[in-house]
Amino acid sequence: MRRRRSTPPRGAAVSRGGGPRKGRYLWAAGGARLFDPTGQEHTREFTKLTTSEVEECLAELPAMQVGVIECGAGVTFFEGRARLEVWRDRIRAQLHDPKRDAPDVEWGYVAELWRDDTSGRQALIFNGE
């Protein structure tokens, strides 16, 4: 039986080995912990960003890391144009916007802003857990 090779999602950052670049999202006693594909730890700064705040981040910070957390699947990081495509095609319609949505309505993703503890570089994470 021949195994099919899985391919990374379109636009996902790819490692030298050909697979998607995955980060880690862990629950610990002190709360959630996020690590990018290079192993750098990030600290959560803000959660429940509005649609306009997300669009502002994507427009003003073209080098910002963008990751998507799917329930139980870790974090997939996107680069370049794929950052905007994943936002437009997959996340935007399912984003919980605190200015627009009732607090008791459940949506697919919450936008969170994280900062690299070493370099200070920010990451925009769409949390679908």
Q: How can the largest sheet be summarized?
A: 7 strands, mixed, barrel
The H-and-E topology, N to C, reads as EEEHEEHEE
> Helicity range of the residues?
10-25%
Poorly predicted tracts of residues: 1-19
* Fraction in beta strands: 25-35%
Structural class: alpha+beta
Quick check: average pLDDT?
79
The side-by-side strand order for the widest beta sheet comes to 1-2-3-6-7-4-5
Shape: globular
Number of strands: 7
Structure notes:
The chain has a seven-stranded mixed β-barrel. It contains two helices and seven strands; from the N terminus they run βββαββαββ. It has helices at residues 51-60, 81-91; strands spanning 22-28, 31-35, 41-47, 65-70, 74-78, 110-116, 122-127. It is an alpha+beta fold and 129 residues long. Mean pLDDT is 79; it is low at 1-19.
Defining traits:
129 residues; alpha+beta; seven-stranded mixed β-barrel; 2 helices
Fold blueprint:
Layout: E1 22-28, E2 31-35, E3 41-47, H1 51-60, E4 65-70, E5 74-78, H2 81-91, E6 110-116, E7 122-127
Parallel strand pairs: 4-7
Antiparallel strand pairs: 1-2, 1-5, 2-3, 3-6, 4-5, 6-7
